[in-house]
Amino acid sequence: MGDPRDRAAFDGHDRPFVRGRWIGALALAGALVAALAGCAHMGAADARPDAETAPELVPLASVAPGVRQDMRYHGRHNFMGRPVAGYEAARCWLSRPAAQSLEAVQRDVEPLGLTLKVFDCYRPQRAVDDFVRWGKDLQDQSTKAEYYPRVPKQELFRRGYIAERSGHSRASTVDVTLVVLDGRRARQVLTGPLADGGEVDMGTPFDLFDERSHTADTSLAPDVQRNRQWLRALMQRHGWRNLPEEWWHYTLEPEPYPQRYFDVPVH
Ligand SMILES: [Zn+2]
Question: 173, CA 20 to 30 Å: which among 121, 182, 206, 251?
Answer without folding.
Answer: 182
